[in-house]
Amino acid sequence: MAFCTNCGQELLEDAKFCQKCGCPVTDENTGYMQRKQEFAGKLYKCPNCGEVLKAFELNCPACGYELRGAKASSVVKEFALKLEAIESRREYEKPRGIWAAAEAQQRISKTDEQKISLIKSFSVPSTKEDMLEFMILATSNMNMRTYDSANTDVSKSEKEVNAAWFSKVQQVYEKAKRSYSADNVFTEIQALYDSCNVEIKKSKKKGIIKWVLMLGWVPVVWIVILVSLAITEPKKEEKEIERLDNIVLDVRQALDHGEYAHALRIADSIDYQRYDVEMERKWDIEREYWVEKILEEAGKNGVDIEFTPTPDIDKANDEPSDSEDNDNGVGKGFKEGVQSGLDAAKENINEFNRILNGEEPDSSSATE
């Protein structure tokens, strides 16, 4: 059997030119050879008609033969069986006490450590069938609650296992993208990968919304308080100034009518009740001015008025009370009595030591 050395087409017997590419057939470029066929991977055919089957087909596209007993990929199936074996050996321990429960939340169990190690060490499959099977297995085992930052019930073990699954999902997706980007199976793999990312984003967004709802009212309350103060405080200040101005007006009217005692009582009530220190000083000066003016006018007109200023409660609180003075006196006397007793005891000890040493007793101490 002769083949064209230019394009590989099988040549007709005694042909002078290749019927496909038109290359002249000569003794130099023509040879008799055995063509070899090599197949990469496994080729699945219909047992009824021999039609080549694509992955995951349940019926033969040529004859309609129903394909029964389809088995999952051996690599992914073996991996899933290992995971089940690890999970079956899990030991559940109920923590006792609040601190033990909190500590258990931040600890990775031995079972989960084994699962994480198995997932991370799993070799990314090469065939598209295995890749799709693994993507289905991985995405179905992922727990999206672990991405909710406001969820306090998720343990560290769950987060680490979930992170291992997602890391392997990303590896499988990237390999499938480079190897089978033009294949229909990759479309399914990409759909699973995109769906996984969408669910992760939803869970993260849900956690942010929860935090905003839990803590977002704090700045709102402060804003409401500040706005209300900004609105009400100037009005209260205006009312206070208006009140004091009316008192001054009453003082003037009483002074003009010669009612010195009444004017004095009114003037003594001039007292600023707000929180501005400068305004408080201003109205204190205003009160003193009117009191002096009233007393001066009354003296000029021969009216004798006895005036006792109303005590300032704030200043009175700063001054020490009589009880405190008494307490200080009692405390001072107690300390003096204790000190004198200690001095006497010390002198007696010294006298006792002199007697033991054979010395003469101190006459001055004896006289005392």
Structural summary, described in words:
This protein has helices at residues 74-88, 98-105, 110-121, 128-141, 156-179, 184-215, 217-256, 260-268, 277-300, 313-318, 322-356, 363-367; strands at residues 2-4, 30-32. It is mainly α and 368 residues long. α5 (156-179) runs antiparallel to α6 (184-215).
Chain-wise SSE layout:
Elements: E1 2-4, E2 30-32, H1 74-88, H2 98-105, H3 110-121, H4 128-141, H5 156-179, H6 184-215, H7 217-256, H8 260-268, H9 277-300, H10 313-318, H11 322-356, H12 363-367
Antiparallel strand pairs: 1-2
Helix pairs in contact: 1-3, 1-4, 3-5, 4-5, 4-6, 5-6, 7-8, 7-9, 8-9
Order of strands side by side in the largest beta sheet?
Answer: 1-2
Principal-axes geometry comes out as elongated
**H and E order:** EEHHHHHHHHHHHH
**Which structural class best describes the helix and strand composition?**
mainly alpha
Portion of residues within helices: 55-70%
Number of strands: 2
Keywords:
single chain, mainly alpha, 368 residues, 12 helices, 2% strand
TL;DR?
This protein is mostly helical and 368 residues long. It contains 12 helices and 2 strands; from the N terminus they run ββαααααααααααα.
